[in-house]
Amino acid sequence: MGRMMRTLLTCFVLFTMRAGAQHPVTIFRSPGEYQAARGEEVGEFVDVKPITGRLMLVVEQDGRRQRIACRDLWGFTYKGILFRIESAGHLPVRLMTKGAVCYYENGLAHLRMQRDGTELESFALGHRSYMSRHLEGEVVPAIFHDDGRGVSAAFRQAHRQFEPLFQCIGPSDDLDNTRQCVVDFEAMLEGP
What is the pTM of this model? Predict the structure, then answer.
C-alpha cells in the first residue's frame, strides 16, 4: 500500500471515529459520588420519557436499551454537562452557572439540544429555570411570588441575602429575564 493510500485511509479512520464519537451518560446517586468523580457510565443518551407514571432516563449500550428512574438519581453528566434531578417532579435540570447560587434550566430541552445538535427545543414538563444555593442543595423553581407559599418561597426566606436577585426574577417564568437577573447579580457580587 502506497504512502498516499495509507494517509487517506488514516484520515478516513480518524474521521469515522470522530463522527461516531460516543458521549456516555455517567450517573450519580449522591452529590458525594459526583464530587469524587465516582459515577457509573451507563451508555449513550436516548431520551428522558414518562413511563408508567415515572420519568425515566433512557440510555443505550451495546445495542441494548436501559431505563433508569430519574427519582433514583442525584444527577448525571452528558457531554460533560451536569444535569441535576429536582425533587418535586424528578426532572433533570441543566446546571448553567455556579456562583453565589447555582442556576439551572429545564433539562429536557437542553438534553434534546445536546443530542440532536439543535439550538432550540421545547418541553412539556417543568419550569424554564431553577435555582439552588449550592450543588448539594435543594433545587427549586426560579419563580418568586410575594405570597410566601411553596418551595421557592421557603428558599427565599432561607436566603434573604439574595433578595435583590429574587425581586429581579419576580413571579414570572421568563427565561430571558431570569438569565439576565442571575448574570447581573453575580457581576454585582464580583464588584468592579
Answer: 0.85
Q: Evaluate whether 141 touches 128 at the Cβ level (below 8 Å).
A: no
Whether the pLDDT of residue 122 is over 80: the answer is no
Question: Cell 430519574 maps to which residue?
Answer: 70
Closest CA to 106 of 85, 88, 129, 89: 129
Q: What amino acid occupies position 113?
A: M
Q: Which residue has the cell 414538563?
A: 125
Q: Are 26 and 42 in contact (CB under 8 A)?
A: yes
C-alpha 140 chain-centroid distance: 14
DSSP string, 130-180: EEESSTTSPPEES---SS--SHHHHHHHHTGGGHHHHHHHTTS--HHHHHH
